[in-house]
Design a protein that fits this description.
The structure is a single chain. The chain is α/β, with parallel strands linked by helices. The chain folds into two domains: 126 residues, 3-Layer(aba) Sandwich (Rossmann fold); 196 residues, Dihydrodipicolinate Reductase, domain 2, CATH 3.30.360. Helices cover 36% and strands 27% of the residues. The strands form two sheets. The chain has a nine-stranded mixed beta sheet with strand order 14-13-12-11-7-10-9-8-15. A six-stranded parallel beta sheet has the order 3-2-1-4-5-6, with helices on both faces. A hairpin with a 4-residue loop joins strand 9 and strand 10. Helix 4 runs parallel beside helix 5 and helix 8 packs across helix 10. The protein is globular and about 55 Å long. It starts with 8 loop residues before the first strand and ends in an 8-residue tail after the last strand. The model has no long low-confidence stretch (mean pLDDT 98). The structure holds nicotinamide-adenine-dinucleotide (NAD). The site of nicotinamide-adenine-dinucleotide has 25 residues, from helix 1.
Length: 362
């Protein structure tokens, strides 16, 4: 039984594609403080079927029409990466709170320009802007984040890895409903998935880099190598964090084996070891924090690990109750974009690349 609060955030979802079908429509219904008020898609057949399945109060074929509905308080932008930034800008201009899927965008320049707009809007009024880095809402990851913040003291080093599996679609096909598609769906020109270096970095690297920053802090520079072998792409990345500690990131797609995502953190007064399951299992990460204070390991159960719902509930709480933002912010999304571009430049040119020097795209 889902307990709803008396005050619900009226959400409009842009995009009826797979991620909306697998996560956002359901999360709006199950969220304790959210309502699926409207959905929007330019593909009429998809819009009609999704409306019949999910029962929003309103449907829209055009984003501008959904934005001009004063009942829509916040929008979820769940469309291709290439469209994120212009549509976020449009939503901010219309006075809406914005939740956008990851990655924030596809180039540093567009992310920086959006960042300027978000800060300008925020200086005038209460507007929440959050990015869909759902790993932050895994209770195990939050437990590790709080342990690092409150107990570990200074950091020495952190390792994080994200290895997609050759078997992942067998797993996700079982866990997710069969997606409904439309020949009229709006897609970016060309095939952005054809360049795997770019596609894997934006799609998977955006999660890895955000987790590294969430747990390890701001990144100053990276030195990366990429091995492309046997149809796999394996990035090994040395990281210098601004805090003076070092890191190692591993992005491998695909790995011959199980899906693997996790991290290790070494600190002054403790250490952390965490493994995050494929998020579609909605199970909490398996995280152990060791503290020198009591010489004990601590673990959390995290019985509710539906990260797609938890991130939306937190978004709504920030909007309606002014709660501090827990999800990735515009600054986080822009910094993640810089990290991904710096990794790409380092692979091309060799050596360490500072994040504050890079331009362009991955
Ligand atoms: N957080 C996660 O775990 C996760 C997982 C998968 C995908 N994603 C992200 O979600 C985003 C969307 O992925 P997807 O596979 O669902 O996308 P998709 O391109 O398959 O579907 C998007 C839908 O939006 C509609 N659309 C696009 N622009 C529109 C516009 N201006 N007006 C009206 N309708 C419009 C299209 O017609 C399409 O039906 C991507 O950025 C992706 O990276 C995140």
């Amino acid at each position: 039984m889902i307990a709803k609060e008396s005050l619900l955030l009226r959400v409009g979802v842009l995009g009826c594609g797979p991620i909306a079908q697998f996560a956002h429509f359901d999360a709006c219904h199950k969220g304790r403080n959210t309502e699926l008020y409207a959905i929007c898609d330019a593909a009429p057949d998809l819009l009609e079927r999704m409306a019949a399945m999910h029962g929003p109060q309103k449907t829209f074929a055009r984003f501008e029409d959904m934005l001009s509905d004063p009942q829509v308080e916040a929008v979820i932008i769940a469309v291709s990466d290439q469209f994120h930034v212009p549509l976020c800008k449009q939503a901010l201009d219309a006075g809406k709170h914005v939740f956008v899927e990851k990655p924030l965008g596809i180039s540093i320049e567009e992310c920086e320009s959006l960042r300027t707009q978000v800060h300008a809007v925020r200086a005038r009024e209460h507007r929440v802007f959050q990015i869909g880095n759902n790993r932050r809402f895994d209770p195990g990851v939050q437990f590790a984040h709080n342990f690092v913040r409150d107990e570990i003291g200074g950091l020495i080093a952190m390792k994080a890895w994200y290895c997609d599996s050759t078997l992942r679609y067998t797993m996700t096909d079982n866990l997710q409903p069969i997606p409904i598609t439309s020949a009229s769906a709006v897609k970016p020109g060309g095939n952005p998935k054809a360049d795997k270096r770019k596609y894997f970095m934006l799609t998977h690297g955006s999660h890895l880099v955000d987790s590294a920053r969430y747990l390890g802090g701001d990144i100053e520079s990276v030195a990366a190598k990429l091995v492309e072998k046997y149809d796999s792409y394996c990035w090994f990345i040395s990281v210098d964090f601004k805090g003076g500690h070092v890191g190692h990131l591993d992005l491998t797609v695909p790995l011959r084996g199980d899906f693997q995502e996790g991290f290790q953190i070494y600190g002054e007064l403790g250490s952390v070891y965490g493994r995050i399951p494929l998020p579609w299992y909605h199970k909490s990460g398996d995280v152990e924090c060791f503290s020198v204070k009591d010489k004990q390991f601590r673990r959390v159960i995290g019985e509710d690990a539906y990260t797609y719902k938890l991130q939306l509930e937190a978004f709504a709480s920030s909007i309606m109750h002014n709660k501090p933002q827990l999800g990735a912010s515009i600054d986080d999304g822009t910094a993640a974009m810089r990290a991904m571009v710096a990794i790409a430049r380092s692979v091309e040119m060799g050596g360490a690349v500072r994040l504050d020097t890079v331009t362009g795209t991955v």
